[in-house]
Design goal:
Structural class: alpha/beta
Order of helices and strands: EHEHEHEHHEEEHEHEHEH
Number of domains: 1
Helix content: 25-40%
Radius of gyration: 18 Å
Shape: globular
Number of helices: 9
Distance between the termini: 12 Å
CATH topology: TIM Barrel
Number of strands: 10
């Protein structure tokens, strides 16, 4: 099993290039970052974690600019979104951004995605909350066409474009792996239908192993080899027993959370996590 870390990278936390170098030096496989383009002040959508919304949610860096800085500062560290709010992006420009990042990082990008929970945030981007997953599916399928075809085109209910040229193409073939977050049965079926990986949250630990069994059964039923679908536990509990259970279950990756704080708080915690992976 691989081990990674994730952080809400902000304008007041440890610099992401310094964090990336520190993570790579300590043997971590990957670094993931979150995304929120902005946070509306209305607070109509309740915070899924309960209580007030932490301020790092509206101080996050652009994930792709941040990950490019992380990739440029390292040689082997994989860089990923955890998660990218695809429903807040134009798929043509997002496909180019990701292909560029994958090319310049020499194929080290992991594309974690999700539908999002903040209705008013996505509404500011013109996205209807109730149909966000239909939109998500089409944008991902359209991006895969752009990444893999010489003259891609896509015609759907939400995404529609005629044949075009778009370069660069990703280094990873056929394209960077798409990892979908969530734990519901709908999520598991979507993973099988149009993704390469499942991205469950560690806070819902009781759902992970049953979900993994369900995912493998769904993949087999659909004619997909379950071994071709990765599982990355986001915000995994940094406990030896839990990690051993994940390893035995064949989980691909465990990702530990780092606080949005300065280097004096983050680096000692990184050292503590490193002891679990060595």
């Amino acid at each position: 099993m691989h081990y990674g870390v994730f952080i809400f990278p902000t304008d007041y936390s440890i610099r992401i290039d310094e964090l990336a170098r520190a993570a790579e030096a300590r043997g971590f496989e990957s670094l993931f970052v979150t995304e929120h383009t902005h946070i509306p002040t209305s607070r109509r959508s309740p915070f899924a974690g309960g209580g007030p919304l932490p301020k790092e949610y509206w101080h996050t860096l652009d994930p792709f600019v941040g990950l490019m800085a992380a990739a440029a500062a390292t040689r082997t560290l994989k860089v990923g979104t955890g998660i990218c709010l695809v429903v807040e992006h134009d798929p043509i420009t997002l496909a180019k951004t990701i292909a560029t990042l994958d090319m310049l990082s020499n194929g080290r990008f992991l594309f974690g995605i999700g539908g999002g929970w903040n209705a008013e945030e996505m509404e500011d981007h013109g996205t209807v909350f109730k149909s966000r997953f239909q939109l998500l599916r089409e944008r991902i399928l359209a991006m895969k066409e752009i990444w893999t075809k010489e003259t891609p085109e896509y015609h759907g209910d939400f995404v529609d474009f005629d044949p075009m040229w778009s370069y660069p193409k990703p280094v990873q073939k056929p394209h960077p792996p798409v990892l979908l977050g969530g734990e519901s049965a709908y999520t598991l079926q979507r993973v099988v239908d149009f993704c390469e990986g499942w991205f469950p949250r560690g806070r819902n630990a009781d759902a992970i192993l049953p979900g993994l069994a369900d995912l493998r059964a769904r993949a087999t039923k659909a004619g997909r080899d379950p071994k071709t679908i990765s599982t990355s536990v986001f915000a995994a509990k940094p406990e030896r027993a839990t990690l051993d259970t994940y390893t035995a279950a064949g989980i691909t990756r465990s990702i530990f959370r780092l606080p949005s704080e300065g280097r004096d708080a983050v680096l000692p915690l990184l050292d503590q996590y490193a002891k679990l992976i060595q």
